[in-house]
Amino acid sequence: MGLFKVLDLLGGVALFLYGMHVMGRGLTRLAGNKLQGLLEKLTASKIRALALGVAVTLLVQSSDATIVMAIGLVNSNIMGLLQALYVDVGANIGTTITAWILSLNGLDKGASASTIFYYLNPLSYLPLLAVVGVIFVVFIKNTKRYNIGSIMLGFVLIMYGMDVMKAAVRPLQDSANFSKFMLSLGNPFTAILFGILITVIIQSSSASIGMLQAFALLGLIDFKLAIPVILGCNIGTCVTSLISAVSANNDGKCVALTNFIYKIDGVVILGGAFYLVNLFYPLPFMLFPVTPVGIAIVHSTFNIINAALHFPFMYWLADLVKRCLPQKRVNTSLADMQMDTALKALDDRFLNTPAFAVQQSVQTALLMGNYAKSAMYKAVALIENYKEEEFVQVDKLEELTDNIEDALAQYTLKLSTHRMSDADNNYLTMVMQSLSYFEQIGDRALTIAKAAKEMHTKGLQFSAGALAELHVLEKAVFEIMERTFDVYKEQNAAKAKMVEPLEEVIDYLERKVKNRHVRRLQLGLCTIELGFIMNDITSSLERTSDHCSAIALSTVEANCNEFGAHAVALELKEENPSKFKELYLKWKDEYRLPAAEAMNVKKM
């Protein structure tokens, strides 16, 4: 086999791997949020978890990618250890579908156009798929068409890669050196090691199985060699997940190691049983030339029987692995644990499936917002009942929101470099817009807490009238926060449109409270110092409602594909002014300030 034929073989492998990458990305982007939906349906059901492992592997076209994702989900405490293991079992079955697709390459390409084999051969349609794929990717500016085109071009590259590999190894049919090499692999152990080595080098069991099928197309190998090489390929594919698990927690490491042991155990038990039977009752087909379909059958049979064999015992296998792993005992503060939870959700492993990474970003932004909201509730409570430990909690929550914002900003920046669907792009833009608003709610909470601390330190207290007015404003702000966070959680554009009228009522309330307080100052019922503190508190509450309005509007923008907060806010008023006015008057009536006369203050 000359140098150029070796280069041809490597080129075929490169085309194959890139085709798998392109097709997998296209399928993942086309699935979009469906991938998130599939994973959210995970329950304690072992069968469902296994089925989802198969389904996700079909979407991403890589068992390694599915298992790495499962490790990330376990590391983020989103998925349980056992759920992840059954997903892995499903992924190992799902990846065998690729071998069945590649086996179509073995159909007679040179058959007459009048025969059924000509029409079943995928290579007969590759030029058409390539043309349509290029048109969709290059000339049509539509994300869905782009993704469909990517799937087509990926399939074309895979099949052409197989064709190139087949042509490259054709000279080996008459090679004496190749015959000697084949004889050297006659020992099953040597052949298994060879399969492991090839898969570790290529980093894809589908590609190594594809190479094996290319050899099979020319009748260069028999079942005696193919079976142990396939067993070795199944072990070699675990390397990617083992490397990925190095930075994971103990449960993540357990997923990767259990999958590795599961494969080795399967090879030892099933391979041992097969060769034991063959030793006493020699199987006649072992010396027959293997076909691509035969390789697909062996690959699928091993993974299905191995899954059935280990299915009832995965709990004990995982428990054994977990006992062998060193347990880390780390004493961390609550804030550190909360930050760690947020960072685990932003796992770089998810970047290979952008649709899922976007949803993780949305959930992390919501988590950050909930910390800011909690800080606001605690800060407002300090105005009348100051406690130093509660002030410290507000300060820590505000710092936590700052840190999560920094981490999420970096993560979304990395994520933005990946191509994704229009819907996911909109959600990512929404997250990037809402980050600063969530963070600023935490800032406003700290400002209120500092004002409460100043009042406590100096022995200052608001009058009963001022507190009564402040309570109305506070309740309105709490209302808009709850509604906004529900909108963001549910991604409900219809509910988001109800937030803006309440924000305008809060603007009105803030102006009235300030005017009344100025009047109290003029009448000598309040001090200048308390006036400044009241201004800080009411301004912070009003600005909080502004941030909530902006978050709700960004939700409308993301779900309606219209970006530009001011434009959207105006449209909400203009599209149904009577409804807007009705909601405005409803909120205004619900959050009515106490009568001015009751506080000896003239109506403004």
From TrEMBL:
Keyword Zinc belongs to the record: no
Keywords for the protein's UniProt record, in alphabetical order: Cell membrane, Membrane, Transmembrane, Transmembrane helix
Pfam families noted in UniProt: Na_Pi_cotrans (PF02690), PhoU (PF01895)
Location of the PhoU domain: 367-451, 476-552
Compartment(s): Cell membrane
UniProt superkingdom: Bacteria
Residues spanning the membrane: 6-28, 49-73, 85-104, 116-140, 146-169, 181-205, 225-248, 260-281, 293-318
Membrane topology recorded in Swiss-Prot or TrEMBL: Multi-pass membrane protein
Keyword check for Magnesium: no
NCBIfam families: Na_Pi_symport (NF037997)
PANTHER family per UniProt: SODIUM-DEPENDENT PHOSPHATE TRANSPORT PROTEIN 2B, SOLUTE CARRIER FAMILY 34 SODIUM PHOSPHATE , MEMBER 2-RELATED
Name assigned to this protein: Na/Pi cotransporter family protein
Species assigned in the record: Amygdalobacter indicium
Species lineage: Bacteria, Bacillati, Bacillota, Clostridia, Eubacteriales
